[in-house]
Automatic annotation (TrEMBL):
<keyword id="KW-0812">Transmembrane</keyword>
<keyword id="KW-0472">Membrane</keyword>
<feature type="transmembrane region" description="Helical">
    <location>
        <begin position="12"/>
        <end position="30"/>
    </location>
</feature>
<dbReference type="Pfam" id="PF08889">
    <property type="entry name" value="WbqC"/>
</dbReference>
<keyword id="KW-1133">Transmembrane helix</keyword>
<dbReference type="InterPro" id="IPR014985">
    <property type="entry name" value="WbqC"/>
</dbReference>
<protein>
    <recommendedName>
        <fullName>WbqC family protein</fullName>
    </recommendedName>
</protein>
């Protein structure tokens, strides 16, 4: 049986494709010890509020730009900040068809006391996966026995090999970053997950894609979520550059 491994940073309430990637994998590795990217999407995302795109974020304590995700901590004001976020979600989505099912899940996640950014994000990902009936095993990069004196790209390959992977699966946004020849040289197959074009009812006259999973959950019951999770294609890349890129797509 082919063993598909994917590896991504632990994001807070990421888009649907993140959970498609987990569902399509035999093992999902959380890149908890990767460097935190200040302008990335690890601790922020988007919702629709009043029919308009609204960006939310989770405030962090001050930290160095070189710190890993699992070295960053949520602000001491996280409880107040999370309560404000819950208030906004209640106001924006109280008429959504799945509000009654989803709101208790969000409350449980956002009231979790953990302040380590990576652990808080991992908890949220695991809780949402449980709700979505995704049973893919998860591991952490920090738990693997990876040498410190090898390059970042070699560490990715070693992580997949240590996890027993035959295939490394990445979102299609990273297609230009990876060389299939480099993976093949290490006995690995490189594939990309391409999301189908999809839409669902929203509180907006025109569908807005790539919002937080919160928006998707509010409008789609569990059975429909199962269908949406399967709306993707796994593709192999055409031969291109011999350079490897970052883990993040």
């Amino acid at each position: 049986m082919v063993h598909i491994v994917s590896l991504m940073q632990p994001y807070l309430f990421p888009y649907l494709g993140y959970f498609q990637l987990i569902a399509a994998s035999s093992l999902f590795i959380l890149g908890d010890s990767l460097q935190y990217t200040r302008r990335g999407w690890i601790n922020r995302n988007r919702l629709l509020v009043g029919g308009k795109i609204w960006q939310f974020s989770f405030p962090l304590e001050q930290g160095s730009q070189t710190q890993a995700i699992n070295e960053r901590r949520l602000s001491v004001e996280m409880r107040l900040s999370n309560q404000r976020l819950l208030h906004t979600i209640r106001h924006a989505y109280h008429r959504a068809p799945c509000y009654g099912q989803v709101m208790p899940l969000l409350e449980e996640i956002l009231e979790h006391p953990e302040r380590n950014l990576s652990h808080f994000a991992e908890h949220s990902i695991r809780r949402i996966c449980h709700y979505l009936r995704i049973d893919t095993p998860m591991a952490r990069v920090s738990e693997l026995d990876l040498a410190e004196d090898i390059g970042r790209d070699q560490r990715l390959i070693e992580a997949v090999k240590q996890a027993g992977g035959d295939v490394y699966l990445n979102p299609e946004g990273g297609r230009h970053l990876y060389s299939p020849a480099v993976f093949q040289a290490h006995g690995l197959d490189l594939q990309f997950l391409r999301m189908d074009e999809l839409s669902y009812p929203q509180f907006s006259p025109d569908f807005v894609p790539s919002l937080s999973i919160i928006d998707v959950l509010m409008f789609n019951p569990p059975d429909e979520m199962q269908r949406l999770l399967g709306r993707y294609t796994l593709e192999r890349p055409a031969p291109s550059s011999d350079l490897l890129g970052e883990y993040e797509s």
